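Incident log, entry 3
Record: S100 calcium binding protein P (91 residues)
Problem: checksum mismatch between cached and fresh output.
Input:
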Amino acid sequence: MSNLETAMALLMKTFDTYAGAEGRKDSLSKAEVKTLLEKEMPGLLKAAKNQSEVDKLIQGLDFNGDSEVDFSEFVVLVAAVTCACHDRCSK
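Fresh output:
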């Protein structure tokens, strides 16, 4: 597989690893999102000034208002963080 195909497969595998630990298998609950962020993006959590910022981030991911984060919403998070890192690294 190409690098991009590998990255896409890793995104899907990472989402599936955390989704469904509680509740639906095709979405992440708030607790599952927190666990994913703690294990997969610890730098993001360290950069947060307080827990309410993390809660706002999670709430902001839920575009359709179903109190869960589906794969499309998860991909938006990864893309946004990637863009932020790319902008920071290129300056």
